Amino acid sequence: MFKRLQSFIQRHTEKIVAIVILLFLVTLFIWHYPIRKIPNEPVVTAPASQEPLVTPTIPPVKTADFEILACPADFDIYPSTTQNSGFTAVKMPITKSLTSVRHVSTGHLLDQAGYGMEFGTSYALAEDGSVYRWGNLSFEAGIHPSGFPQKVAGAPTSIKQLDGRFALTHQGEVWDLGMGETPKPVQELKGAIGIAQAFDSSVLGWYPNGVVRLYETWGSDGKPSTKKWELQGELTEIYASPYIALGLRKDGTLVHLQDNSFQNPTNSLQNIVLPNEEKPTKIETTMSYSTKAYIQSDRQKWYMINQDNQLVDATVPDSTIQPTATQHYTVALQKNGSVLAWGDLQSLLGPDYQSVTPEKAIRLDGLSNVAKLAVGSDHVLALTTDRQLLSLGSNMYGQLGRSSVYTAVPIAIGQWPGLDELYPSYESYIAIKDGDAWLWKTDDTPKPLLLGQKISKALNSHTLLTSNGHLLFLDPDGSKTCRMLQTPEPIVDVSHTWNGFLMVLRGGRTLYAQGIEGNSGPLKVSDFILNPRPKGVVTRVFGSPSAFALTDQGELYFAPKMVKGAFSPDMVPAQAGTSFRQFSPIDYVFNDGSRFVALALDEQNKVHELTLKQTEGSSETNIFTVEIKKTDQKAQQLTGGAYIDSQGIIHDTNLIADNHVSLPGSSKLATSSSYYHFPIEGRAYFFHHFVTQDGTIYWLGDRPFTRQESRAGAVVIP
C-alpha cells in the first residue's frame, strides 16, 4: 500500500504541490481577513420586503495604508505672487456720516454665560431730538440686527437724557425705547430728574429728596419690578453699570448703592470715602467687572473701584480726562482729544498685545478731536468736537454702525468669472477656480492659498482635497508647512465630523478617521458597514450634525450610535425605499435633542425635511433616529437649509422678507454655498452666497465675518 501511495505521489507531484500551496493561501487569507460581525441588536430593522440583513465581508484597516506624510517640496503654500484672482468687488452704495449728534450711549449687554458672544447695541441722540439705534435690536427670533443707525419710531420728543434704551424727557417722564418693541413711558419712574442705566433692561431713576428707584423690565416673576432706596441728603447724580450703582450727594459724599447682583437689601448703603478729605468731581462707571468705576478727586487724582468693591489708586496717564473700560481693555480720553488704550488688546491689535500696561498705553488709530467716550462690553463709540460719531471694536451685531450686517434680498457683492466653488468656513471663504485655492474675506481682496495643485474641495482654510484624491493639511497659523494623508485608494469625498473625518474612497469604501489633525503618525481609521448593503456605491459623505452617506443610487444612510464621542461602525438607511438626488445638511447646528437639520430632494424634485432625534443617551452612549417628512414643495436646487423652487424663488425659514426673494430674472445659477451658526446661546446667523454663470456673487442673509475693527471709522447711514 505504501509503494502504491509512493507511486501515486511520484506521478502527481506537481498537482499535489499546487493543492498544498492553494490551501496555504486560503488559510492565510482567512486568518488575515476575519469576517466582521454585526451587533446582535440592530438599531433599525429593515421591512420584510427589503433585502435581508447580511454580514458584509470588509477587509480590516491596515495601519500602514493610512499615514500622514509631508507634502511634496513643490507645494507652495500661501505663495508670494502677483497673480490676479480675477475677482472684482462691486461698489457698495454711497453712505453718509451720522452728524449733528448731541449725545451717545450704549446698551449694557453682557455675555454672562461666557460663550464669547460680543453683544452690543449703540444709541445716539441727534440735535433735532431724534434717537438712533443700531446693533442688536432684539433677542426675539426672526429679528435681525442692524448694521446702520435706524430712527426709533415712537420715541418721545424733548429728550433731556438718553442712557441706552431709556430716555428722560424735560417733563420728567422716563421712557423705555424697547428692544424690538414700541417705546412706552415707565409710570413707575414718573417725576425723576435723572436716570442711569444698570443692566440693559433696568434703569435707576433719582429724585431731589434723596429717593432712588430701580426699575427692571423683567423681574424675578417675569413681570416688571421696582426697588426703592431712601438716601439722606439731596442728590446731584446717579451713576450705574451692570456691576455697580453709585449716588453722589450735594455735599460731595459718594454712596455705594448696589453691586452687580442688584439684589442687596436697600438698607445696605455705604459711603465711599476718598483719602485726605478729597472730594469726587468726576465719576465714570464701566463695563468691566474688574474695574467697576473710575473716580477723579478735586486734587486731579484718579481712583478706581475694583472687583472687590475696594477704592484703590488708579494708574492712568496724567492727561486723562475720561477713563472707562470694556470687558477686556481700558480706553482713556486725553486732553488733546486722542484716546489711549491698555489691558487685553489682542482682539483689537493682535496676540502680541494681550497684556498692555497703562505705562505703555497705545494710541488708537483714527481717534482725534474726541469729546466723549461711550463703551459697550466689546466696542467703543467716540463723539467728536464737531458732533460726528466714530466707532471701533467688536461688530458681531453691527454695533459699530459702519456696514450692513443683514440683507433680506440678494445683493451683488462681486464679480468672479470662472469661479467654480465657494466653501465657507468660520471667518473666511475658500474659493476654487481652475483648481487653485484662494482665501477670501468678503471685505478684502482674495489672497492665494495654494496654486497649481488641482484643488476640488475645501473643508476650511487649512484642509483641502485635490482632484486626484489627496487630503492636504495646511498650517492654520500661516506657515508654509503642509501634510498629506496617504490612503490605499484616492479619496472621492471628505467631511468634518465628530472627533475626526468621514471619507469615501474610490469604489465606495466609507471610513471614519480620528486623530488626523495634529497627528504626525499612524491614525485610528475604521470602516463603516452599510447594512443592509446598498445597491449603489457611496459617493458623498456629510459629517454634521451626524454621519451621513449618499450613494450614486440615491440611498441615504446614517450612523445611529455614538460611544464615548465616536461613531459606532454601523450605518443604516435614513429612509428605505426613497431615492434622493440631493442631500443638504445645515452646518453648523447646535443639536438640542430634536431639530430640523437637513433637506433632501427626491427623484420627483419633492423637498423632504429631515429631523435628527436623540432617543437614548448616557454619559458614554448616544442613540439617534432620523425622521423624514415629505413636503408638498418642489425644488430645483438645495443649499443648506434653503431650497430654490422652479420659479427661482428662494425659501428659507430663517429669512424674514415681505416679498418673494429671488435672483435677478436673467441670472442662471452656477453654484451656491451656505453657512448656518446656531449656537447654544448668542447670535444665531446664516448666509447664502449664489454664484451665477457670469461670475456674479450674490449675498443673502447675515453678513459673515463681521468681528473686530481695530481702526476707528465713521458711523454712517445709507
CATH architecture of the domain at 96-394: 7 Propeller
What distance lies between the first and last C-alpha atoms, to the nearest angstrom?
Answer: 108 Å
Continuous helix count = 3
CATH class descriptor of the domain at 96-394: Mainly Beta
Radius of gyration: 32 Å
Order of strands across the widest beta sheet? 49-48-54-53-52-51
What characteristic shape results from the CA principal axes?
elongated
Major β-sheet, in short?
Answer: 6 strands, antiparallel
Poorly predicted ranges (pLDDT <50, ≥5 residues)? 1-12, 20-57
Q: What is the strand tally?
A: 62
Helix content: under 10%
Q: Write down the overall mean pLDDT.
A: 86
CATH superfamily of the domain at 96-394: Regulator of chromosome condensation 1/beta-lactamase-inhibitor protein II
Characterization of this structure:
- With 718 residues, this protein is mainly beta.
- Among the domains are: 96-394, Regulator of chromosome condensation 1/beta-lactamase-inhibitor protein II (Methylamine Dehydrogenase, Chain H); 493-634.
- It contains 3 helices and 62 strands.
- It has a 6-stranded antiparallel β-sheet, with no helix packed on it.
- Strand 29 and strand 30 (389-394) form a beta hairpin.
- The relative contact order is 0.12.
How are the secondary structure elements laid out?
Layout lengths: L1 H10 L1 H20 L34 E4 L17 E2 L6 E2 L3 E6 L14 E6 L4 E5 L10 E6 L7 E5 L2 E4 L4 E3 L7 E2 L8 E4 L4 E5 L4 E6 L8 E6 L4 E6 L4 E5 L4 E5 L11 E3 L7 E6 L5 E7 L4 E5 L4 E3 L6 E6 L3 E6 L4 E5 L2 H4 L12 E2 L6 E6 L3 E6 L4 E6 L11 E10 L5 E4 L4 E5 L2 E5 L6 E4 L4 E6 L2 E4 L4 E4 L7 E5 L4 E7 L2 E6 L4 E5 L9 E4 L1 E2 L7 E5 L5 E4 L4 E3 L2 E3 L2 E2 L2 E4 L6 E6 L8 E9 L3 E12 L3 E14 L2 E3 L2 E3 L5 E2 L17 E9 L7 E8 L3 E7 L5 E7 L1 E2 L1
Parallel strand pairs: 44-50
Antiparallel strand pairs: 1-39, 2-31, 3-62, 4-5, 5-6, 6-7, 8-9, 9-10, 10-11, 12-13, 13-14, 14-15, 16-17, 17-18, 18-19, 20-21, 21-22, 22-23, 24-25, 25-26, 26-27, 28-29, 29-30, 30-61, 31-60, 32-33, 33-34, 34-35, 36-37, 37-38, 38-39, 40-41, 41-42, 42-43, 45-46, 46-47, 47-50, 48-49, 48-54, 51-52, ...
